[in-house]
């Protein structure tokens, strides 16, 4: 999958995430070294989530909040089309999603004030306004801590990776990053799970026996040593995952019926959506997907029409449809967002123009799970320059997302230094979004 350079360059966090040992997205080896079972919340119904990051900031005016009656320098080149839900219209270049609008809600008029990519992503991908004194956890890290996952499966997977880490929750709640997206017609594997390089299960068992012998030898010095106790838990988790056929099968999309696979497009995002549905069905509780490239300061309409919108349309439509076919849509919340919207007025940076960063107004999508589909909530003004009324804050949507997963947004954690921190500091659950 391409790595997109945004207008403010390759920031430090992005450079780290590209590395195999970045704390924000671990390879299998690092994941197994650092992760262990966390505290899980008691719940009566399984809840899952798929979080779709759109880094770069997609234009709300050219996707889900068109203004056909606005002046030409604002409305742009795209026309709205009718959808499956009466009275709801979206961009003409999203025809497949137009047939799935009964399965999700469009949230318009979301507004904030952080117009830089790194800060906006920290805000929108964690649900908390960035704080120099505290690193907030990604949604998936919270889910990995709170939701019960089978012992031989990772609770949180990022395809191919994510910029947001576990923050104050600690590295043990980092995602297992695949570091690659699936390619149609080519076997997909996560290094280690597929036992590559000629390593057999017998060899794994031999190495585990050797480690057990070493553990017994050094048992005396291990007493009251939390680090070594943790490493023992890590090795047990590693053994369970590497030797688990269920884990290996969870990542093997070739096991899906051909008729099901063929619903998904050939591009990497659609194939990632296919893998996400399989992982959720297998017992993984949280999957993050990433479709970047939305930083359209120039050539906005060509880039959207020829690349970004067709990929988003094919992938998301198949994701909603596939989850429904598997009977998973009612238990899986899908949340889609970038870090901000883009300016209503088209700039002159290229022949056709582009749109610049604009956090004052943006869209989000949420569907599945406990979300009431087939509606639009919130609204922007006549030029999509801001909320028509009071609007929603990112924290409000974050609180609602957690609520849909059975996780209280007012849940209080303690940081490693003993500081009490509420899960979502300043958000109110949007009741009209939930059933």
What does this protein structure show overall?
The structure is a single chain. The chain is α/β, with parallel strands linked by helices. It has two domains: 12-184 and 251-433, Alkaline Phosphatase, subunit A (3-Layer(aba) Sandwich), CATH 3.40.720; 195-244. Helix content is 32%, strand content 13%. The chain contains 14 helices and 14 strands. It has helices spanning 12-18, 28-34, 72-75, 95-98, 117-124, 139-146, 201-217, 219-222, 226-242, 245-250, 258-261, 268-282, 300-325, 394-404, and strands spanning 48-53, 80-82, 89-91, 104-110, 156-159, 176-177, 286-290, 332-337, 341-342, 357-358, 362-368, 375-377, 412-414, 420-422. The strands form four sheets. The chain has an eight-stranded mixed beta sheet, with helices on both faces. The longest helix is centred in the C-terminal third of the chain and has 26 residues, at 300-325. The chain is globular and about 70 Å long. The two termini are 36 Å apart. 48% of the residues are buried. Mean pLDDT is 86; it is low at 10-23, 36-43, 195-201 and 224-234.
For this entry, give a set of tags:
about 425 residues, alpha/beta, Alkaline Phosphatase, subunit A, 2 domains, 8-stranded mixed beta sheet, two-stranded antiparallel ribbon, 14 helices, 14 strands, about 30% helix, globular
């Amino acid at each position: 999958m391409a790595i997109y350079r945004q207008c403010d360059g390759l920031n430090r966090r992005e450079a780290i995430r590209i590395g195999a040992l970045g704390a924000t997205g671990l390879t299998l080896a690092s994941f197994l070294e650092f992760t262990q079972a966390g505290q899980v919340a008691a719940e009566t119904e399984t809840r899952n989530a798929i979080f779709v990051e759109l880094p770069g900031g997609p234009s709300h005016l050219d996707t889900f909040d068109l203004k056909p009656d606005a002046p030409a320098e604002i409305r742009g080149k795209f026309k709205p089309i009718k959808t499956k839900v009466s009275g709801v219209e979206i961009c003409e270049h999203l025809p497949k999603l137009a047939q799935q609008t009964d399965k999700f809600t469009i949230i318009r008029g979301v507004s904030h004030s952080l117009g830089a990519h790194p800060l906006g992503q920290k805000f929108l991908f964690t649900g908390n306004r960035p704080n120099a004194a505290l690193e907030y956890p990604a949604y998936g890290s919270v889910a990995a801590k709170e939701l019960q996952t089978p012992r031989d499966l990772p609770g949180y997977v990022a395809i191919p990776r994510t910029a947001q880490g576990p923050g104050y929750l600690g590295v043990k709640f980092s995602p297992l990053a695949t570091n690659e997206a699936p390619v149609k017609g080519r076997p997909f594997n996560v290094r280690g799970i597929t036992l590559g390089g000629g390593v057999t299960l017998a060899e794994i068992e031999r190495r585990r026996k050797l480690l057990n012998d070493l553990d017994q030898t050094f048992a005396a010095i291990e007493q009251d040593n939390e680090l070594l106790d943790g490493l023992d838990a890590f090795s047990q988790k590693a053994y369970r995952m590497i030797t688990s056929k269920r884990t290996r099968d969870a990542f093997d999309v070739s096991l899906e019926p051909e008729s099901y696979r063929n619903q998904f497009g050939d591009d990497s995002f659609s194939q990632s959506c296919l893998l996400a549905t399989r992982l959720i069905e297998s017992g993984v509780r949280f999957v993050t997907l990433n479709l970047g490239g939305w930083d359209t300061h120039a050539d906005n309409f060509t880039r959207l029409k020829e690349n970004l919108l067709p990929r988003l349309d094919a992938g998301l439509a198949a994701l909603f449809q596939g989850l429904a076919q598997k009977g998973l849509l009612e238990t899986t919340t899908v949340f889609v967002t970038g870090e901000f919207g883009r300016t209503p007025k088209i700039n002159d940076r290229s022949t056709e123009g582009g749109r610049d960063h604009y956090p004052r107004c943006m869209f989000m999508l949420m569907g599945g799970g406990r979300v009431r589909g087939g509606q639009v909530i919130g609204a922007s003004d006549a030029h999509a320059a801001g909320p028509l009324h009071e609007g929603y804050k990112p924290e409000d949507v974050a609180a609602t997302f957690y609520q849909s997963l059975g996780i209280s947004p007012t849940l209080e954690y303690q940081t490693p230094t003993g500081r009490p921190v509420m899960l979502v500091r300043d958000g109110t659950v949007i009741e009209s979004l939930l059933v």
